[in-house]
Amino acid sequence: MNAKTLCAGFGLCLLAACTTPERDFDVDEALSYCDGQVRRTLAELKGTDDSIDYTMMPRNIADSLDSWHCRKAAKEEWCSGFWPGILWYDYEATGDEAVREEAEQFTASLKFLSETPAFDHDLGFLVFCSYGNGYRLTHNPEYKQVLLNTADTLATLFNPRVGTILSWPRNVALYGGHNTIMDNMINLELLFWAAKNGGDPHLAEIAVSHADTTMKYHFRPDYSSYHVAVYDTLSGRFLRGVTHQGHADSSMWARGQAWAIYGYTVVYRETRDERYLDFVQKVADVYLKRLPEDYIPYWDFDDPAIPDAPRDASAACVVASALLELSTYLPGDKGEEYRAAAINMLASLSSDPYRCGDAKPAFLLHSTGHKPAGSEIDASIIYADYYYIEALLRLKKMTEQ
Ligand code: GLY
Q1: Most buried residue, 144, 189, 222, 250, by most Cβ within 10 Å?
Q2: Per-residue pLDDT at 301 exceeds 70
Q3: Does 245 contact ligand 1 (Cβ within 6 A)?
Q4: Ligand 1 pocket, mutate which of 187, 245, 299 (most atoms under 8 A from CB)
Q5: Proportion of the chain in helix, strand, coil states, percent, rounded to 5
Q6: CA distance 256 to 182
Q7: Which pLDDT tens digit goes with each residue over 197-255?
Q8: Of 153, 286, 158, 289, which Cα lies nearest the Cα of 222?
Q9: Would the pLDDT of 18 be above 70?
Q10: Architecture of domain 1-52+293-401
Q11: Quick check: CB of 247 below 6 Å from ligand 1?
């Protein structure tokens, strides 16, 4: 049975299980589209002299432009791991050795991150998306060492009095204390991985402490999240929840909530502690309940400009990927509801209004990076593409089981 037929079958089951049945969706067509766009990007990066600067990573394509803006891999550039990660996923989907060679070359440009002190918490994004996927697919021992060293580096930001990793050392004075951002949940996966793969077992305890402290302080009673939690550095006391990239301190910034859904799904996978499984459903449900009809959130659920506010396709990609995994831990109606929601997100993302198509070499349009700073609004952004192809591969594997 191919993926499309199977999806259609599930859709019928879901008519009884939830109000919105999943849409028909062809995952193979979507993966083939991604492969075509990857090849266009590689051709663009090669330029006319057929050579690539492997330290320059595609980051975004502004709404008004049609070619990638690249940024040099650097400790301050949090998005450098996504393009190598996309190449690894495309290699996984196609088995094309030429794509693997490109993935290796871009990945190698990030090795310096395992050899320098931590700049901030983004080491998980940077190194797990690149080296982590590379190691998963190749078992290259050099990749393993980079991952283990980077996990140790990330752990240097842990403050045991607070119980979390300091996300932005550079912003301690700005926020008046130890700051932890919701995005930081994604970096816990590297610590869990290292603890299980020859690293210090204490790394998993750091990850659990971070998850528990974040669960306690970083959410409002309705399970929507703050972007930033500020703690007293010395006493560890929670001081306040504020925003950095959202509309307001009290609003639900879409990608922040997406990081929370993804992060607690990983924490449940790694611990099998039912507290996290229960919690992540609440965090997911407040997000799902407030989505517009096409399943792609506005950049912040509380922007008063809605429905004229920009969307954030990247949040939809992160949540689609997370919900596909989460659905496998929840047999019965709830799992089916999450799976259907994820497929509906992917169906929307794969439709003409959200696809770059021939216009640009990225996969997707309409992501929003940092609206309050006026940056990457309604753009193609590399992390949207990364979580999109990850979600497609997850769905493909699920339908083939
Ligand atoms: N980690 C930064 C962001 O989600 O924009």
Answers
A1: 189
A2: yes
A3: yes
A4: 245
A5: 55, 10, 35
A6: 6
A7: 999 999 999 999 999 999 999 999 999 999 999 999 999 999 999 999 999 999 999 99
A8: 286
A9: no
A10: Alpha/alpha barrel (1.50)
A11: no
pLDDT number for residue 401? 81
Q: How far apart are the first and last CA of the chain?
A: 10
254 close to 243: Cβ distance less than 8 angstroms: no
Q: Ligand 1: does its nearest atom lie under 6 Å from the Cβ of 390?
A: no
pLDDT tens digit sequence for 139-163: 999 999 999 999 999 999 999 999 9
Q: How far is the CA of 309 from the centre of ligand 1 (A)?
A: 19
Q: Contacts from 172-179 at CB under 8 Å and sequence distance 24+?
A: 172/233, 175/228, 175/230, 175/242, 176/230, 176/239, 177/230, 177/231, 177/232, 177/233, 177/239, 178/230, 178/231, 178/232, 178/233, 178/236, 179/228, 179/229, 179/230, 179/231
Nearest CA to ligand 1 atom 5: 369
pLDDT tens digits for range 113-126: 999 999 999 999 99
Is the model's pLDDT at 6 over the cut of 90?
no
| pTM (predicted TM-score) | 0.95
Cis peptide before 117 (omega within 30 of 0): no
Nearest atom in ligand 1 to 181's CA: 1
Ligand 1 pocket check for 350: Cβ under 6 Å: no
Amino acid at 256: G
Q: Which atom of ligand 1 is nearest to the CA of 259?
A: 4
**pLDDT surpasses 90 at 286:** yes
How far apart CA 60 and CA 37 sit, in angstroms, is 14
Q: Which residues are catalytic?
A: 122, 183
Spatial separation of the C-alpha atoms in residues 161 and 78, rounded to whole Å:
26
* Residue 314 Cα: closest atom of ligand 1: 4
- Evaluate if residue 26 carries a pLDDT over 80: yes
Closest listed residue to residue 85, CA positions, set 69, 101, 103: 103
- DSSP string across 25-68: --HHHHHHHHHHHHHHHHHHHHTTTT---TTEEEEEE-TT--S-
Question: Which of 95, 98, 101, 127 minimizes the C-alpha distance to 31?
Answer: 95
* Distance of CA 60 from the midpoint of ligand 1 (Å): 13
Residue type, 128: F
246 in contact with ligand 1, CB cutoff 6 A: no
CATH 1.50.10.10-classified regions of the chain: 1-52+293-401
